[in-house]
Each structure stands twice: as structure tokens, then as C-alpha cells.
Write a structure and sequence with these properties.
Number of helices: 6
CATH superfamily: Class I glutamine amidotransferase (GATase) domain
Strand content: 25-35%
Helix content: 25-40%
């Protein structure tokens, strides 16, 4: 049986066919394709703060991208440019902590990496242009930034990426303090781009979007860890 990989999702108004602006549980299909191409079976996880029992049915977990985490999750006051999805926070933070407690294989993507950091006791910069002085990580609405990263020799992400240093990112928040996680990748400006915990079966967070090119290296590593 293929490993079952849960993917956290958005709830957004969506339109299709004759149906207009219905509240919809959704995720870019690229995440599902990434899991499928890597040999896994994707299951979508709507925000749900009632319990974390769904983890019993999963072999692995993808914490997908999305809106900013609420600063209250890491003890900060919101800045005017923070756009939060409290429903996702309420469901995904307990889910992440329970998955960590169970040592479930986890891949965090963009917001998902930041969620891992916050669950590990870390904190975030709420608006990177105020810190870095540029917009390269989110150059324009709906436009991904492309830049090179550098990876720590001997790390999991370095082994997976090899000589390929180019990444596609879209975020205006970033890691300020990684908590108990280890930063193993950075952008050219020094911003953390990858975090991991080598003591766990598989815990990797990336600030970029590997689903854009269905990166079988990252999705495959998660699925292989879930299969074992």
C-alpha cells in the first residue's frame, strides 16, 4: 500500500461551473502531484481544531503554504502587514505538535516551515522588507522570487539538493529564531531557507515551494521516510 501523506489545506471562496464563491477546502494540485509522483497517496486535511486523531491514519504530513501565522502563536503583537488565517493556526499548530510528539515524517513548505519553527519554540520576522531592505522573497503579487541558496554540508537538504541551488519563493515573513531546529539552508541575504532536526526520522522545513516543479527529491524523501 502506498504511504498515506496528509496535506494541510486552505478554506477559501472558490468558483467552478455554476457555483460561485463557495467556501471551499482546497490546495494547489501541485502538492498532490508531488506526493503521487513520489509514490505516496495524498489526503487533504481541512483545518480542524477538535483533535489530532487523524494522525493515526497518516504515514507522513505536509504542512502546506498559506497565510501568515498569527504572531500570538510566538508571543508577538501583529504588525499592520500581517495577514493571518486564525482557523488554520488553531488546527495546524496542535496537529504539528502532535506529529512531532509521534515522530511522524514531516515536510513543511513556506508557512509550513514557519509553523515547524514556532512549534519548536522559535519566532518570525513579520515583514522581511523591514528587516532586509528588499522585496526579493516576494517581488510582486503572484510572482515568485528566484534566487540561489546555500546549504550546510552534511545536512539532509544538502544531500537532497546536490549542486542545484536555485529555489522559488513567495513570502514576506521569515525565520528570526529557529527554536530547537537547525538552520541548514540560507538565502544569499542570510535568511534561513531550510530547517531540520537530524535526531528525528524525517523533519524538514523549506521556505521555498518545491511543489512548483513537483520536486521528487523532497517529496520522495518524505514518502520514503513514511514508507519505513
Amino acid at each position: 500500500m502506498r504511504p498515506i501523506i496528509g496535506i494541510t489545506t486552505y478554506v477559501e471562496p472558490a468558483t467552478w461551473g455554476v457555483w460561485q464563491e463557495l467556501p471551499t477546502t482546497l490546495i494547489p494540485h501541485a502538492y498532490v502531484e508531488g506526493v503521487t509522483l513520489a509514490g505516496g497517496r495524498a489526503v487533504l486535511l481541512p483545518p480542524d481544531d477538535a483533535d489530532t486523531d487523524v494522525l493515526r491514519a497518516l504515514d507522513g504530513l505536509i504542512l502546506a503554504g498559506g497565510a501568515d501565522l498569527g504572531p500570538s502563536c510566538y508571543g508577538a503583537e501583529p504588525s499592520p502587514l500581517t495577514v493571518n488565517d486564525a482557523r488554520r493556526d488553531a488546527g495546524e499548530l496542535p496537529l504539528t505538535r502532535a506529529a512531532l510528539d509521534a515522530d511522524l515524517p514531516i515536510l513543511g513548505v513556506c508557512r509550513g516551515m514557519q509553523l515547524l519553527v514556532v512549534a519548536a519554540g522559535g519566532s518570525l520576522h513579520q515583514h522581511l522588507p523591514d528587516v532586509l531592505g528588499h522585496e526579493k522573497h516576494r517581488p510582486a503579487p503572484g510572482v515568485y522570487g528566484t534566487h540561489d541558496a546555500r546549504f550546510e554540508p552534511g545536512s539532509r537538504i544538502a544531500a537532497l539538493m546536490g549542486d542545484d541551488l536555485s529555489i522559488h519563493c513567495y513570502h514576506h515573513q521569515g525565520v528570526a529564531d529557529p527554536g530547537t531546529l537547525r538552520v541548514t539552508g540560507r538565502a544569499e541575504d542570510g535568511l534561513p531557507e531550510a530547517v531540520e532536526d537530524p535526531a528525528r526520522r524525517f523533519l524538514l522545513g523549506v521556505q521555498w515551494h518545491p511543489e512548483l516543479n513537483r520536486d521528487v527529491r523532497l517529496f520522495g524523501a518524505l514518502v520514503n521516510a513514511a514508507a519505513s
